[in-house]
Amino acid sequence: MTACAKKAGDGGSAAEVSNENGATALSELAPQGWASVSADLVDAKGASVGIVLIRAGAAGVMMRLDAAGLTPGWHGVHFHAVGDCSDGAAGFKKAGAHFNAMKREHGLLHEGGSESGDLPNIFAAADGRARAELFRAGLALTGDGGLMDADGFAVVIHAGADDHQSQPIGGAGERVACAAVRE
Known about the structure:
With about 180 residues, the protein is mainly β. Helices cover about 0% and strands about 30% of the residues. Strands 1, 2, 3, 4, 6, 8, 9 and 10 form an eight-stranded antiparallel sheet that branches. A two-stranded antiparallel sheet has the order 5-7.
């Protein structure tokens, strides 16, 4: 199952995400019209485990996410280059590498970094739920060098924390959840 982006206000299925895994309704995460795009977050089996909402701004891109079913603790989150989460059992490899329009090194703390797709870690509570609002300065959603190109992009959550320095993914480990954002 591939989750596809929903444009704000389109009334698509991402509008209500409350499920048995504890994810919340979109209306609780952001007011209607807040997001430019949204996408369902799926686990390796293709089950919905949450949602991501992304809003373009003049100085960067804001993302809100609600994820359930994670291992408690810190998890790396990145924008990946391709909006394809159809191979969860194989580790979401079709999502490609981190989005890296400026061809820099990985890591928010790396002296040669950071890649455009690098984001801060999120924390999953004891019940496996993580809710976060993340901002990536200098990144555009659309246009030249923007996330939304012909093959879209993905938001990927990793099994462990990103150390923000190690190459190529900060030691964050396996890809455990993915949201495919496509037009």
